[in-house]
Design brief:
This protein folds into two domains: 5-16 and 84-230, Rossmann fold; 19-81. Helix content is 40%, strand content 17%. The protein is built from ten helices and ten strands.
């Protein structure tokens, strides 16, 4: 299988926003909503799927009130200071060298996502989709944003893969009928979705993508890290 396109989640996959910032921001939001700080629920909201359900059933807050407070509390400049690109994004120009089109599908609004994209390098990507209601695209895990990206790239879903770090991302890829890579960053323990393959570094994509390996090929084995290892036989 020759993959013509790779699409990526942004925060947690290509860039890392520090734990300190996450807990400070959400702690302030909870305080303003009259709720106590809860580290586990903050992590669940940040990483797990169905954020409105966590807001409503976990925090006990009306989602509209929560989102309003979040917008008021979030300082984009401060967030940028707590965000850095992952070292393994150096795989991106390697994929480009082999004519793999690249795209980003992010659930963040442009005001949040754009500074993070600049950290990675906007010019590396052929398409960027903000899968957010503010942008008129249905939120993840609805496949609209992913399918829109494929349409813009003029690539079929069976010729592309999607990489993300959360259950929401894996569900998104499945809803779009695509191969999914779950990148394990060691930031959370939420799961409940089964990806096509689990990796611990984006450089694992080189073996699968550049060697043209079909993920159903019996030659693919897994080391303890669960990164793909392709035999020569």
């Amino acid at each position: 299988m020759h993959y013509k396109a790779g699409l990526f989640d942004l925060d947690g996959t290509l860039v890392d926003t520090s734990d300190e910032y996450r807990h400070r921001l959400l702690g302030e939001v909870l305080k303003n909503c009259g709720k106590e700080y809860n580290a586990n629920l903050i992590d669940k909201w940040w990483f797990d799927a169905d954020r409105d359900k966590t807001i409503r059933d976990g925090f006990g807050i009306d989602p509209q009130q929560f989102w309003t407070q979040l917008k008021q509390c979030q300082d984009i400049g401060e967030r940028c200071r707590y965000t850095k690109p992952y070292d393994d994004i150096t795989v991106l120009p390697i994929l480009k060298k082999y004519n793999v089109k690249l795209g980003i599908i992010t659930a963040a609004p442009a005001t949040v996502a754009d500074p993070e994209i600049e950290l990675v390098g906007r010019n590396q990507f052929d398409v960027i989709i903000y899968a957010h209601s503010d942008n008129g695209v249905q939120d993840k895990p609805h496949p609209e944003g992913l399918l829109l990206a494929l349409e813009k790239m003029k690539v079929n879903r069976n010729e592309a893969f999607y990489v993300g770090n959360s259950p929401e991302d894996i569900k998104l890829a499945r809803n779009a009928g695509m191969v999914s890579f779950y990148i394990e960053r060691g930031k959370h323990t939420f799961n409940g979705q089964t990806p096509t393959i689990k990796i611990h570094s984006l450089h694992a994509l080189e073996k699968v993508v550049l060697m043209g390996v079909d993920l159903d090929d019996p030659r693919i084995t897994f080391r303890q890290s669960q990164d793909p290892d392709v035999s020569d036989t």
